[in-house]
Amino acid sequence: MLSFKAGRCNRRGETNWVDPTPTKGLITLETSAEDGLLHFSWKNRETGATDEDLILFPSEANFLKVDNVTGGRVYVLKFSSSDQRYFFWMQNADTGRDEYYAHNVNGLLDDPSFSPAEPPAAPAPVASTSAAPEPAAPSGSSQPSMEEQLRQLRELVQSATATAGTAAGPELTLTDVITPQSLEPLFARPDLLLAIFPNLPADLPGERNADTIREVIQSSAFKASLRGLQQALNTGLLSNLVISLGLPPEAGTGVGPFLRAISEQAQSSSTENPEGGDEHMETD
Amino acid sequence: MSDESGWSLTESDPAVFTSLLHSLGCNTLLVDDLWSLDDPGLLASLQPIHALIFLFKWLGGEEGEGELQGGGRYDAEFPGFFAHQVVNNACATIAVLNGVFNVPSIPMGADLTQLREFSAGMDPLMSGYSITNSSAVRNAHNALSSSANSPFSIDPSLYDQNEKEDAYHFVVYVPVAAQLYELDGLRRAPVAHGGWEGGEGWLDVARRTIQRRIGAYPQGSLHFSLLAVRTDNLPGMEAELERARGVGDEQGASEIAGRVYAEKAKRAQWEFENALRRHNHVGLIHALLLGLAKSGGLEGAVDKAKGKMAERREKAAKGGSGGGAVEE
């Protein structure tokens, strides 16, 4: 399954103008378990609703970059057998990954059993977090005017300087997020710790307590796993894995989305469970 | 991450080697760190020692094939077992077997027995291939590889540099037919270092040979470690403890009890580390982050982590070395 952030663009009637809408969205390509066919869907990340769900047969469509939009990141889903066009614009903070996503989409559109490739090794992919603003919706048509091109160029320069600080590498490493010091708020909550212990190896000798967890997170095996997870998250291909953790598919697109989704998961589970054995609920 | 041969990267750790041997049926053997060759008390407490494994990383680059640092001469007529290292990731396991297969009367499992019999009379290259192709040995080796136990392949560059097995070279010192032999899977033949006489034993010759070798490198250019393959003495110590208590030797009993306690604590620590190596940590990582979020600490932890990363980048930009590499 492939997922990446993208917004939609509306076409103005029969003209060549497309107006991007600012709504945050997610394109997902997935072979459905129900019908065994490849679905190209667009989910509205603000409402959670899947507003577009297309079933595509092999070689029926292509995902192409619209060249006439200067600096814009507009792509079109174009059908070989009809005039239908769906326009999208990339919302992933790292523009360097656009080609990689497009390449993988086309691979799947040609043959649903295609294995998506990993992004290019250099430069290091930027973890998309709230610090890197999402690019403003570009506007464009197949014949942009001079003023239009200048405006797009200005927008491009603005977004480039905003992301310049993070372009040099990842913003954080998970091995700094999970440390004995950082976990102190968790260690102060024996009720929350109870949920952690079942995730330790069954054959781990010793007692189950905060000290054990401190030792585990400082072990070489745990740290290697943490780094491996981070690296895998950076490929953006972990949607299937994160779903098994009860997270939405976009949590598999990067370290930032992963952490944000967990934050949301924590909030929604405490509101879902008014009688759940959490005595500290009232003080939250 | 495994190479095409299917052998994954593991750590060079006594706990890993010991568990490897036990899973292959060598239940009486242990592999332990040997901190010093000069301490007779230490050596005595670890006896009987059957083989020494010298692992080292020369910071100056690849060692030449022809130079025999530390003396000795090639012996193509070596009567024991010697296998070449044909797969990089298997180098530690090949070294361990080069040691163990040359120790007489060691109990071992059926797979190892068959492997040793099968390779009798083979040249070192074929012996190396036999080991590499043994699924029993490969599976035992991979069982303790963090990367083999994770749901995604881990880039070897993620391992702490000092722990990467393939960054180290392994050499085994073992007595065979009254001579000390040096078995190096990357050399064309075993190296003979002579015999011993008088009050000495093979360990004395080994100590001199290894010290000579270490001395041949410029100061500080060699990272090395020494491991002892020895017979587990815990059952023996416990029997001694029983006897001492039986005859009312309070002092003796408490001294032995102390050693037994220390030894058991070490084994428990090894079990702890090995259990973590075999474990898939993804569920635990998610549970920790979720628990931290519920306790209200996730945002703070993320902010601090970003701060640390920014600091590292600044330091790297000023200092010039190490780049954005994360150190533990």
Automatic annotation (TrEMBL), chain A:
**What superkingdom does the record give?**
Eukaryota
Question: Annotated Gene Ontology MF terms?
Answer: endopeptidase activator activity; proteasome binding
Q: What is its main location?
A: cytoplasm
Q: Which residues form the signal peptide?
A: none
UniProt xrefs under InterPro entries: DEUBAD_dom, Rpn13/ADRM1, Rpn13/ADRM1_Pru, Rpn13/ADRM1_Pru_sf, RPN13_DEUBAD, RPN13_DEUBAD_sf
Query: Where is the sequence biased in composition, kind Polar residues?
Result: 264-273
Q: What organism does the UniProt record list as the source?
A: Calocera viscosa (strain TUFC12733)
- Annotated DEUBAD domain ranges read 165-272
> Looking at the record, which segments are called Disordered?
111-150, 263-284
Q: Record's Gene Ontology CC terms? A: cytoplasm; nucleus; proteasome regulatory particle, lid subcomplex
Entry keyword annotation includes Cytoplasm = yes
What are the Low complexity biased-composition ranges? Answer: 124-145
CDD domains documented for this protein: PH_Rpn13 (cd13314)
Question: Which residue range or ranges hold the Pru domain?
Answer: 1-112
Name by which UniProt lists this protein = Adhesion regulating molecule
**Which keywords are on file for this protein?**
Cytoplasm, Nucleus, Proteasome
Q: Which residues cross the membrane?
A: none
UniProtKB/TrEMBL annotation, chain B:
Give the top-rank taxon of the lineage listed in the UniProt record for this protein: Eukaryota
Which residues catalyse the reaction?
A: 91 (nucleophile), 169 (proton donor)
User: Which Gene Ontology CC terms are recorded?
Assistant: cytoplasm
Q: Which GO terms describe its biological process?
A: protein deubiquitination; ubiquitin-dependent protein catabolic process
Known catalysed reaction(s)?
Thiol-dependent hydrolysis of ester, thioester, amide, peptide and isopeptide bonds formed by the C-terminal Gly of ubiquitin (a 76-residue protein attached to proteins as an intracellular targeting signal)
Gly residues compositional bias, start-end = 319-328
The UCH catalytic domain, residue ranges: 6-231
GO MF terms on file? cysteine-type deubiquitinase activity
Q: Which InterPro entries match?
A: Papain-like_cys_pep_sf, Peptidase_C12_UCH, Peptidase_C12_UCH_sf, Ubiquitinyl_hydrolase_UCH37, UCH_C
Q: Which UniProt keywords apply?
A: Hydrolase, Protease, Thiol protease, Ubl conjugation pathway
Task: Note down the stretches annotated as region Disordered.
Answer: 309-328
Q: Where is this site: Important for enzyme activity?
A: 184
Family matches, as SUPFAM superfamilies: Cysteine proteinases (SSF54001)
The family database entries (Pfam families) matched by this protein are listed as:
Peptidase_C12, UCH_C
> Known EC number(s)?
3.4.19.12
Q: Where is the site Transition state stabilizer?
A: 85
Family assignment? Answer: Belongs to the peptidase C12 family.
Write down what this protein is called. Ubiquitin carboxyl-terminal hydrolase
> Species name for this entry?
Calocera viscosa (strain TUFC12733)
